[in-house]
Design goal:
Elements (H helix, E strand, L loop, with lengths): L4 H6 L10 E2 L2 E6 L4 E3 L30 E4 L5 E4 L2 H9 L5 E2 H8 L1 H9 L3 E2 L12 E4 L26 H14 L4 E3 L12 H11 L3 E5 L6 H10 L2 E7 L5 H8 L4 H13 L4 E5 L3 H15 L5 E4 L28 H4 E4 L4 E3 L10 E4 L5 H5 L2 H10 L29 H4 L1
Parallel strand pairs: 8-9, 8-14, 9-10, 10-11, 11-12, 12-13
Antiparallel strand pairs: 1-2, 2-6, 2-7, 3-4, 4-5, 14-15, 15-16
Helix pairs in contact: 3-4, 5-6, 6-7
Amino acid sequence: MTVDLVTVCRAKEGTRPRSVRGAGEDLLQTSPYLTHVAPGADPPVIYLTDTFGPAFPEGDVPSADVVFGIVGLDRRIVWQDDPQVLELLRAAAPEAQAAAGLAARFGAGRVAAAVARDWLQAPTDLCRDYRLVSGEIEVTAHCNWGCRFCPVATDPKPRRTMPMDLFEEVIAKLAAVGTIDYVTFQFFNEPTLDKHFTDRVQVLAQYGMQLALYSNASALTQDKIDALVRHGVLRHLIVNMPSADEHEFAELTASKSYPHTVRNLQAAIDAGLRVQIVVNGVGEGLARNLDAVTRRYQPLGVEVFPSLTCDRAGDVGGPYAQDVRIEGRLTGCGWPVQHANISVAGDLFLCCNDYYQRETFGNIRDGSIDELMTSDAAVSLRQRVFGVAEAAEDFLCRRCHNQQPDFPGRDFRPIATFG
């Protein structure tokens, strides 16, 4: 018995055929983007951000006869009452299997249904899909602080600013994607140092894009606050304040801008902006500073959170070093699938922890977001992140906490690696 994959895939509106030949027959493999959900159990994946709180997979209340659910890129649970479907996905997870063999073992109908849902795919299509929720834009490449918990402290980058014509092209292409919830202006930089800041805010308003503004607030002058209020593009202002004590603040940030940050932060609060403060640190110092900042700013209506301070895949040492080393097959991460990271020069690169932008896969001027995100270079990169292809020993993700199986903020728990 065989499964006509071309017929099945053509029946899916807007989907290209996904048939690939190997050894004379179609091959299929389980998408690494899938997560197995047990009814009644805590969600196995949690979608974390610094600012919007945790989110969880969504789905209808399961009926009494369901035995499992599957979560994919859309973050929705598809409940199933047939345990053989899960066995099918498990069988085809570690490596590609002949479609005919899967059909003989599990039934042609189950295989065809799994193909129609993109749960089973041709091996060359694995990790081709994506679903962007944010655009992370490096509008400037420099910062006026040297925070101990940031690579800038030991290896600051030269001053660079994204030209406005390039920025407008970035925003136009991100807006065309249709799934972007917000953009940011940060990548180990200080966006309020940007001479084009108010012009960029106006461009966002023209395209109906929302801004999550990560800032140290030291250069968040009144004209910038007024522009944010006037254009109504601000989703959140997220201010880095590692300590409420001016002396400790200076030690942690290598900056004397505490008075400016405090003054500008108060002006943003007075202007009615939705403000959050993140407190970076580790151990007892973080606990102490989180308490002090909370007591000072929470009565003013400000949300205060500890930050997920990490060593940026090994680029930060000292008390922040995590000494992560992942051996063998990698197990996936949401960053290269859900967030478009775009450098000051327009290059697309791996993620927020790739400080040196080692892993690039195109430039925004080379095509649409879809063309870039589905390019061979982008797909190859994601296949390494998800363990479909072998990652080099020095690959960035091998040093990143997002790849640890017990990291609570995992966006994916692929069936091939988690069972």
